[in-house]
Structure formats: C-alpha cells, structure tokens
Specification:
134 residues, alpha+beta, 2,3-Dihydroxybiphenyl 1,2-Dioxygenase, domain 1, nine-stranded mixed β-sheet, 19% helix, globular, binds (S)-Methylmalonyl-Coenzyme A, binds cobalt (II) ion, methylmalonyl-CoA epimerase
C-alpha cells in the first residue's frame, strides 16, 4: 500500500537557525517558510535528491507540535510521510486493522496541496506516520 518516502519531518526550536545551518553547513537546497494554519505549523522544505526534509515550527496557540517541543526542547524527528495512491482506501484498511487515525479521520489538505492523514505513533512503533495521497 505505501509507496515512496515523501518526507521526514523535524520539529525545530529555531526555524531560522535550522534553515541557516542546513544551507551553510550541509549545503542543502532550503525553501521558504510556509504557514499552514490548518495544521498549526510553519513548514520549510529541504529538497534532497531522493526525498525531502520538512522543518516544523509551532504556529498558533494549540499547535500539535507544542507538546513534542516541550518534551524535546532541542527538537527531534517528529514524523515520516509515506505516499499512497488512495488515501481513503488506505484509511479504511488501517482502521479495519485497528490503527488509530488522528483528528476527525477525514483527510486535510497538506503542505503540498494534497490530502494527508496521520496515524497514532503508539500504533506504529513509536513513530508518527503521515500518509499523503499523490
Ligand atoms: C503540514 C503537514 C504536511 O506535511 O503536509 C504536516 O506535516 S503537519 C504536522 C503537525 N501535525 C500533526 O502532527 C498532526 C497529528 N498529530 C497529533 O494529532 C498529535 O501531535 C499526537 C501525535 C496525537 C500527539 O499529541 P500530543 O503531543 O498532544 O499528545 P501527548 O503529549 O499526550 O502524547 C501521547 C504520547 O505520544 C507521544 N508522541 C507525541 N508526539 C509524538 C511524535 N511526533 N512521535 C512519537 N511519539 C509522539 C508522546 O510522547 C506520548 O507518549 P508517552 O505517553 O509515552 O509519553
Ligand atoms: Co509532514
């Protein structure tokens, strides 16, 4: 069911510092910050030849990454995003398997303008999973 690795997301305590470091120390192609109010985060994508890194920084009062950054003040890997062909079929299969789909269970439009869903980290080896329909 899952296809390519779309991105690995890192929650960062200082977005500008993370961008500057990836540009200068790692020589990466770092994009511009994008506010995603529906998701409570500001994101920056780092383009790699085979995938992307997504920096996440809290946006608004009830950001879903607030608790994560309180527990991990230096930042940390927050989620991985796998591509799927049919996100509703993927959701139904996963729910039938007993996996918890987060939020309302309905896909939201993600940072790439495509539908996304999240799966509870406690159901997947402690790793929060995002699914993106491509
Ligand atoms: C823009 C879009 C895109 O790419 O298109 C995005 O990525 S938006 C990316 C931001 N959006 C999201 O993450 C949406 C989905 N996320 C959520 O609904 C939430 O963040 C949850 C995953 C449910 C966690 O919520 P919250 O931090 O309030 O819960 P909590 O503190 O009670 O945590 C419950 C347990 O899960 C653990 N936990 C929390 N976040 C975790 C993470 N990212 N990875 C692994 N474990 C995690 C906590 O340590 C705790 O474990 P212990 O009990 O053992 O201590
Ligand atoms: Co993401």
């Amino acid at each position: 069911m899952i296809g390519r690795l779309n991105h690995v997301a890192i929650a960062v305590p200082d977005l500008e510092a993370a961008c500057a470091q990836y540009r200068s120390a790692l020589g990466a192609n770092v994009g511009a910050p994008q506010d995603e109010p529906d998701h409570g985060v500001t994101v920056v994508f780092v383009e790699l030849p085979n995938t992307k890194i997504e920096f996440l920084y809290p946006l608004g009062e009830d950001s879903p990454i607030k608790g994560f950054l309180e527990k991990n003040p230096a930042g940390g890997i927050h989620h991985i995003c796998y591509e799927v062909d049919d996100i509703l079929a993927a959701r139904d299969t996963l729910q039938a398997e007993g996996a918890r789909v987060l939020g309302s269970g309905e896909p939201k439009i993600g940072a790439h303008g495509k539908p996304v869903l999240f799966l509870h980290p406690k159901d997947f080896n402690g790793c929060l999973i995002e699914l993106e329909e491509v």
